[in-house]
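Sanity check

After download, print the first record. It should look like this:
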Amino acid sequence: MPRLITTTKYDFAQLIENNWLYVDKTEYAWRLISNPARTFFFCSRPRRFGKSLFVSTLECIFEGRKDLFNNLYIGSTDYDFKPYPVIHFDFSDLELTSYEDFRASLQHAIMSQAERNGIQIRFSTPGIMFDDLLTAAGSEAVVLIDEFDAPITHTLSHTGREELAEKILQTFSAFYSKLKSNEGKIRFLFITGITKLANMSIFSQLNNLIDVSMDQGFAAAFGYTQQELERSFSEEIDRKLALPDCPFASRQDFLSALRTYYDGYRFSNNDAPSFLPAQDELHELENSYGPASKIPSVYNPVSIGMYFSQDNPSFSNWWDETGVSTLAVELARSVNLLNIVEEPAVAPLSAFKTFNLSSITSANISRNGVLTLLYYTGYLTQDGTSTGPLRLKFPNTEIASSFTESLVARYASSTDSVQTAIEAGRKALKDGNTAAFIEQLRNYLSSFSYELFDSDRERQYQLLFLSFCVAAGLKAEGEKHTAKGRIDVYVESIRHVYIIELKLNGSADEAITQIHDKGYPEFLNAPWSNGKTVHLLGISFSSQNRNITDWKEELQ
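Expected structure tokens:
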């Protein structure tokens, strides 16, 4: 069995030569390169989704290294593996301490690509050097640009660096203009980034650049589908299930929990256009899990790799906050927390086509701007089924938990007290210790400023309650529909299910009575609830005290 890796590897040749685990994505590469009429592509994806590995894979293909692909999809096709001069930039490596350092590091990157292709160019401005490089490479150059927006997003993630960002934009404008003037000489162009910056000249000048970011046929090119996970990680799944303290009764229970915590990213919807044919094979397992969408959901590969690399695996948040993702969370603080948590959020498609990161500041950020940035950075994803405006939601428990925990700190008088309450509340709910959970929920609510509360709205308390459960890393859903009504908050862990009714200025007894009157317990008479302890929980809040005044529980 190939060895699993514990850290992200971006070098395709190194993965194959060392017999490390590689989930075959070469069919997507083959689809891109096999149509000579379409050769200029752009794709945006959140960080840590395998963009750099995919670019490295394209590099090896165009270098003609056929031996690396013997057991992969493209190796079974009639692709001829003709070698081409490859120009490969990774702009996440550029120096950004000053404009002079940025310019020098960009010049060095261009010179390095000239040397690896045996080309001599003059030392000049980055635009002129890039033009000389493309001219000398001949009529069949392959240009691969990874993380094209990294210098801008990294610069703007630090307050007070707007002037540097503007100078970088001007330099890149001259640099990318050379792609336009040399497009007849370029055999293939592939550009990746986190965002699609409308004010980058690359999008206004290259009329034949095809954006496959939301393309149906490219939706699963990055990340792991359910089928890929079960096929490539089959032995690792078996090992986890064989652990003596494994909490899962069956393989299906384990896969369901794994899916809830790490799956759920969708980068297209049912009505999105497709320049590439969809692959039916990738959707075989989707009908078993829902939702009803022909667009496959995918797992973040780094989160899955980290989970399976643990000796005693637990569902943890591997989503660290760096670069543009830090900026996304900071800017989200200018939008009401409850408007973010309450799903689904809706943003017009035009917001993604006109996104201008350099114009975003905490002073003028719009809700659509925040939602767009949260989508680009992976905190929100498409629901996969919508038409018209995009319906956005948290992809999974990992992201919902890490994002919500970061954002609630804005409203708290003490960040430490909120984090302590969330950690203790997580354990209490997983253990089914309702009394301890209520205690931590009270601590959580008492940490917030009075400005967050609206004294006559029960919905406010419902969303705060839901935020607590989401931040605690639990499967939680507000307004869950049943045949006779909607459950205020539904929470599920491995061994426990909570049906929760909330009352503002009412009583816990009234809440329990409503649970029974609407037949919510009957909702749980489904195969997936077997073996779990069901808690019927009524909670009353006081608008005067802005906290819990009473609660009552019944076990089923």
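If your output differs, re-run the checksum step. Summary of this record's structure: The CA atoms of residues 382 and 392 lie 5 Å apart.
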